[in-house]
Design a protein that fits this description.
- It comes from Lentilactobacillus parakefiri.
- Pathway: Carbohydrate degradation; pentose phosphate pathway; D-ribose 5-phosphate from D-ribulose 5-phosphate (non-oxidative stage): step 1/1.
- Its EC number is 5.3.1.6.
- It catalyses: aldehydo-D-ribose 5-phosphate = D-ribulose 5-phosphate.
- The chain is of the alpha/beta class and 227 residues long.
- It folds into two domains: 137 residues, Rossmann fold (3-Layer(aba) Sandwich), CATH 3.40.50; 68 residues, 2-Layer Sandwich (Alpha-Beta Plaits).
- Helices cover 30% and strands 27% of the residues.
- The protein contains six helices and 15 strands.
- The longest helix has 17 residues.
- It starts with a helix and ends with a strand.
- Bound molecules: ribulose-5-phosphate (5RP).
Length: 227
């Protein structure tokens, strides 16, 4: 296993220790979360844990169900105790960029409906300033070429996310535009601006949402209380 994958596995295994019998747990998306869901599947099997998972993507739902973890949609539960998700970048104020896996719309819906949010990352995701990682936008296909032009005019260096010559589509059948910003000096101001642009369903800035971050480091997982 690659070294970075070892770190991802270590934080995935550390995170499932926070899950208690009877909980409703939001299950994020991505390669780090994959390790967490594997470890959760082990616990469900060996400890007969009674939990319900709320997946943030079809990929995660399929993995969880394959491991015997029961799942429900976000509208089928009355609350979510804890959501465990990955992130693409986290700055010193614990603001994050998500959406590298094109799942940030469902991830944000699950996150804002959760009592607590935990992010699990390898140490490469911890940054001084957000923006080196391209900022994902989930956009409605109708009018998206015009939206791209408007974003370009603002100097945001937008690019459709492609898979060969096909547009990448989300679980809600939308497109993804990535903004190549280089740096994001004022995340809240940018979030507000993007929230107000017609055609953008959701952006990947996750601000003031996370409570706990587990960082995979050489000497073991480090758990940080963000707020
Ligand atoms: O936001 C996400 C998916 O939309 C992921 O959580 C994020 O991209 C991190 O993924 P990985 O653990 O594979 O690095």
């Amino acid at each position: 296993m690659r070294h970075q994958d070892e770190l991802k596995r270590s934080v995935g295994e550390a995170a499932v220790k926070f899950i208690e019998d009877g909980m409703t747990v939001g299950l994020g998306t991505g390669s780090t979360v994959r390790f967490m869901v594997d470890a959760l599947g082990e616990r469900v099997k060996s400890e007969h844990l009674s939990i319900v998972g709320v997946p943030t993507s079809e990929r995660t739902r399929e993995q969880a169900n394959g491991l015997g973890i029961p799942t429900k949609g976000v509208d089928e539960v009355d609350h979510i105790d804890l959501t465990i998700d990955g992130a693409d970048e986290i700055n010193r104020a614990f603001q994050g960029i998500k959406g590298g896996g094109a799942a940030h719309l469902w991830e944000k819906i699950v996150a804002i409906n959760s009592d607590k949010n935990m992010w699990i990352v390898d140490s490469s995701k911890m940054v001084d300033e957000l923006g080196t990682f391209p900022l994902p936008l989930e956009v409605i296909p109708y009018g998206s070429q015009q939206l791209l032009k408007r974003l370009d005019a603002k100097g945001y260096h937008p690019k459709f996310r492609m898979n060969g010559d096909q547009y990448v589509t989300t679980d809600s059948n939308n497109y993804v535009i990535d903004l190549h910003l280089g740096e994001i000096k004022e995340p809240h101001a940018l979030a507000l601006e993007l929230d107000q642009m017609t055609g953008i369903v959701e952006h990947g800035l996750f601000l003031d949402l996370v409570n706990t971050v587990i960082v995979g480091r050489e000497d073991g997982p480090q758990t940080i209380q963000a707020r």
